[in-house]
């Protein structure tokens, strides 16, 4: 498992976060299609943390990336000490509605749920821990 600490969390560090994950995936020869999907999910989750986790102060986040062989999968964890937020408790965006009638937001989380094989959340020891798994 490799870990990347972002301190403080801000949109400006997104390229570094993506480079960290891309490097790990490239080193392990993850197929290009899966790499692109994973990077889309990473961008969405990290952007949400940067925008919403710390509304009153600056904070940090850790991103962990593990490539497992049995079963073959990529496991990503996002850890922050921001406002407790479980994205899985919120209703996903209703895509059956016409675009002008849809609620603003939530499209990114819907994409993450569709891209990744598994999405799990826990709040433990004062931290949001969001785990994403992508079967290969």
Write the layout of secondary structure elements.
Layout: E1 2-6, H1 14-27, H2 32-52, E2 61-69, E3 72-80, H3 107-115, E4 118-124, E5 127-135
Antiparallel strand pairs: 1-2, 2-3, 3-5, 4-5
Helix pairs in contact: 1-2, 2-3
Which stretches of 5+ consecutive residues score pLDDT under 50? none
Level-1 CATH class name = Alpha Beta
What's the architecture in CATH terms? 2-Layer Sandwich
Q: Name the beta content range.
A: 25-35%
Overall mean confidence score, pLDDT? 89
Task: Describe, in plain words, how this protein is organized in 3D.
Helix content is 32%, strand content 29%. The protein is α+β, with helices and mostly antiparallel strands. The protein has a single domain, classed as Heat Shock Protein 90. Strand 2 and strand 3 form a beta hairpin.
Q: What's the short version?
A:
The chain has 136 residues and is of the alpha+beta class. Helix content is 32%, strand content 29%.
